Amino acid sequence: MRKTIFKFMSFRMLSFNLIVAVCENFGIGINGNLPWRIRSELKYFSRTTKRTSDPSKHNAVVMGRKTYFGVPEGKRPLPDRLNIVLSTTLQENELPKGVLLCRNLEAAMKALEDKNEVENIWIVGGSGVYEEAMASTRCHRLYITKIHEKFECDTFFPAIPDSFREVAPDSDTPLGLQEENGIKFEYKVLEKQ
Ligand SMILES: NC(=O)c1ccc[n+]([C@@H]2O[C@H](COP(=O)([O-])OP(=O)(O)OC[C@H]3O[C@@H](n4cnc5c(N)ncnc54)[C@H](OP(=O)(O)O)[C@@H]3O)[C@@H](O)[C@H]2O)c1
């Protein structure tokens, strides 16, 4: 009798979080860069997107083409994280080795399904990627730095769907109003209910 061999494939329905810094007039960027310079906020971004509970794992950061190339040349790809760039026009040879090019967000999720070494997936912008991410059933939490000032911007954060409600931030998040170089800001976390 012939034996039938069943090959069980591991399948994970992946979810992700989103992280953004947004100013009072809902701006997130200008001329391909951030409209402000807040070092402690950049450190918060780095710390949060790198954090894993399993030290043998790392996280993935998913971003649009303009966000990737907006990162200063010497600082990209973002270190210690799998960088995934979404683009319909880029070719693989235009990105450094180790950076993953995906043609859309779902393709990125599919590519991550069998990457068991990736613990958390962070959506890090820009505008259209945030909009698609927040509308997705995969979206769990929004990590939003609210900057209490208006800045001149050409790129904006989309409207947050009503299904998100504020929850307590992670234990290492500085609570309450922060200030750097006279700019006041606050770390918030919203979760899909
Ligand atoms: N404040 C913050 O937290 C924050 C965070 C991130 C970015 N930013 C700022 O935002 C600006 C960049 O954002 P942006 O909205 O202009 O551009 P972006 O989303 O970073 O890049 C847009 C490009 O990404 C590709 N793309 C986006 N969504 C895609 C999808 N679903 N599938 C395939 N390709 C996709 C397309 O590239 P192709 O044209 O090649 O197809 C599109 O033209 C910069 O100023 C940056 O500094 C701020």
Automatic annotation (TrEMBL):
Enzyme class: oxidoreductase
GO CC terms: mitochondrion
Protein EC: 1.5.1.3
Pathway note: Cofactor biosynthesis; tetrahydrofolate biosynthesis; 5,6,7,8-tetrahydrofolate from 7,8-dihydrofolate: step 1/1
Reported function: Key enzyme in folate metabolism. Catalyzes an essential reaction for de novo glycine and purine synthesis, and for DNA precursor synthesis.
Protein keywords: NADP, One-carbon metabolism, Oxidoreductase, Signal
SUPFAM superfamilies: Dihydrofolate reductase-like
DHFR domain mapped to chain residues: 15-192
Protein name, UniProt field: dihydrofolate reductase
Transmembrane segments: none
Catalytic activity reported: (6S)-5,6,7,8-tetrahydrofolate + NADP(+) = 7,8-dihydrofolate + NADPH + H(+)
CDD domains membership: DHFR
PROSITE patterns registered for this protein in UniProt: DHFR_1, DHFR_2
GO aspect biological process, one term: dihydrofolate metabolic process
The encoding gene: Dyak\GE24403
Protein family (similarity comment): Belongs to the dihydrofolate reductase family.
Species per Swiss-Prot/TrEMBL record: Drosophila yakuba
Gene Ontology MF terms in the entry: dihydrofolate reductase activity; NADP binding
Signal peptide feature range: 1-25
